[in-house]
Amino acid sequence: MKFSKNERVLVLGGSRGLGKALIEILESQNIFAKSLSRKSEIQADFAKPETWDEILKKIIELQPTRIIYCAAGGPYGDFQKFSWKDHAWALKVSFEFPAFLLHSLLKNPPPQLLQICLVGSAIAEDQADPGAAAYCAAKHALKGLVSSLQKETSSQFLDLRLLSPGYMQTDLLPLGSEPRNSGKAKDPKAIAGQMIHSISDSARRHSCQSFD
Ligand SMILES: NC(=O)c1ccc[n+]([C@@H]2O[C@H](COP(=O)([O-])OP(=O)(O)OC[C@H]3O[C@@H](n4cnc5c(N)ncnc54)[C@H](OP(=O)(O)O)[C@@H]3O)[C@@H](O)[C@H]2O)c1
After folding, report:
1. Ligand 1 — pocket residues by CB below 6 A?
2. Which CATH architecture fits 8-200?
3. Helix (H, G, I), strand (E, B) or coil at 68
4. What global pTM score does this model have?
């Protein structure tokens, strides 16, 4: 559905990278858009389950019409080289918190909320991602969750989307990595522009879409 002038968009993980680019585009169209993250004005750390109820309260108080969940991450290197807490962090930020958020909002839907978009990964949600096993597992799980909920009839009142970019030139992609060096990684602003266009298209309601 097209953005109306009184929309309120929350970008969870909008302080940099793709999330920041989404906010910049929305603001340039005079649409209210705010970031929640560790380094945003509205602070939230999605890796801390003990704070999730408080974060949910903040989100509800901000009365969003749309929520875009962008935050994700994880350690890069052989799985056993890292301590378990590093992998647990990746699973919490990239899957558990967005799953908690979806569960909470579908259970008690705020009346003005029209759409929830979760950012997946065109690469890591469908294929192996050696060196990023926990992140890859979280993205597979996110796709499994969203694509299942899209088919549950009791979830139909919300437009639920999975937006899956390919490689982008952001902090998430290690410096010196092949996609950066080969020029495969795209400008996040270009991907954000395509995403805004897509999420305002009602024909794509309940879709999983790749942007690469
Ligand atoms: N870059 C790529 O090549 C690529 C490819 C495929 C998919 N994606 C997906 O695209 C999305 C955006 O990625 P990006 O490349 O823009 O990443 P990024 O530049 O690393 O930005 C990540 C964002 O998430 C926030 N964040 C991270 N951990 C957080 C936490 N514990 N609590 C709250 N916020 C947290 C960060 O904000 P703070 O630091 O302020 O907390 C930041 O705003 C992610 O879902 C990613 O998986 C990226």
Report:
1. 13-19, 37-40, 44-47, 70-73, 93, 119, 121, 123, 165, 167-168, 170-173, 185, 188
2. 3-Layer(aba) Sandwich (3.40)
3. strand
4. 0.98
